[in-house]
Amino acid sequence: MPIPPDVATLRLYLLRGMYLLIAVGLGLSLWPSILAPADTSADPHSVVRAVLGALSLLCLLGLRHPLRMLPLLLFELAWKLLWLLATAWPAWRAGTLGEYGHEVWFACMVGVVLVPLAVPWGHVWRHYLRGPGEPWRGRRSL
Q1: Nearest 10 degrees: CA dihedral of 13, 29, 79, 87?
Q2: Do the domain assignments include residue 55?
Q3: Residue 136 lies in a domain
Q4: How many structural domains does the chain have?
Q5: Averaged over 31-52, what is the pLDDT?
Q6: Model pTM?
Q7: Long-range contacts of 120-123 (CB under 8 A, 24+ apart)
Q8: Residues sharing a CB contact under 8 Å with residue 37, sequence separation 6 or more, in sequence order
Q9: Range of 74's domain?
Q10: DSSP character at residue 8
Q11: Rounded alpha-carbon distances, angstroms, from residue 71 to 24, 53, 142
């Protein structure tokens, strides 16, 4: 697939760098607890591990298809912003953020700073927000 004219080659490398950072970061910090969990109960922590594990695997696909996998980075930016604004900010103001909260705050801030630098916002605007969507009804063939 040729490089779209609205995205610079450097931007594709930045995207690949973000996918790699997420995949390696989650791979090192999360996959050991997925492969050999200390606790085997089905609780909210196991759901978070599964979601973030899936994100890390899909980011590997982003190395090959950086533009097609852009929704992953938009998801990454969205959940981090939501956590920072809805959880970390109120906890920090109340003085209850704690050590774990500070660690997550730092990791989220790294993503909130780096992801917008890598994302080709013009491409997002033209193809995701302004471009035509897929039809609600299509051909019947599978």
Answers
A1: -140
A2: yes
A3: no
A4: 1
A5: 87
A6: 0.87
A7: 120/6, 120/7, 120/8, 120/11, 120/15, 120/67, 122/6, 123/4, 123/6, 123/7, 123/67, 123/70
A8: 46, 49
A9: 9-129
A10: -
A11: 19, 16, 24
Give the residue carrying structure tokens 């760098």. 17
* Cβ neighbours of 22 (radius 10 Å): 23
Those residues whose C-beta lies under 8 Å from the C-beta of residue 118, and which sit 6 or more positions away, are: 11, 14, 15, 17, 18, 73
Q: Average per-residue pLDDT in the chain?
A: 92
CB 56 within 8 A of CB 85: no
| pLDDT of 38 above 90 | no
Cα dihedral across residues 97, 20, 58, 34: positive or negative: negative
Is the confidence at residue 1, as pLDDT, over 70? no
pLDDT recorded at residue 42: 85
Within-domain flag for 97: yes
Cβ neighbours of residue 9 under 8 Å, at least 6 residues apart?
3
pLDDT for res 141: 65
Residue 133's identity, in one-letter code, is G
Establish if 48 belongs to a structural domain: yes
| pLDDT beyond 90 at 139 | no
How far apart are the two ends of the chain, measured CA to CA in Å? 24
